[in-house]
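FW: tagging you since you asked about this chain on Friday. Here's the raw sequence from the shared folder, copied in full. Didn't touch anything.
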Amino acid sequence: MCMTPEGYGTGDVRVPRLVGLMAVDARESARARGLAVDAPGRPDFPHAVVDYVVRQYPQPGTPVPRHSVVHVWLDFGEGEGGGGVREPRGPLPPPGGLRRELEEPDAVAPLVVLGSP
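HL: got it, structure written out here
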């Protein structure tokens, strides 16, 4: 491969920034530069449309050979779920805590009343 003074081959292209794009736009942007896009663990990626790219490798601006694969990770768009798993589920905090503390009259701070002159 012939190297140019910039340090990358003449057949190389720079990876576009795909983070923030919808899956369909990320595929089109990469294809326009001669690159392919893959989403590890997402066999439905060729059909994904409204999922947003949240991470990519290689990073934007990296020179890579034409026809290379850019790996992307997706998340749901706004309003599309994406709440994720609410973990950890346990252990729960011990009973008492603030509720037990408020039951004691001496634990309550004195009430301060502010008035206007």
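FW: The chain has two helices and five strands.
HL: agreed, and Strands lie at 12-14, 36-38, 52-57, 63-65, 69-75.
FW: great, closing this out.
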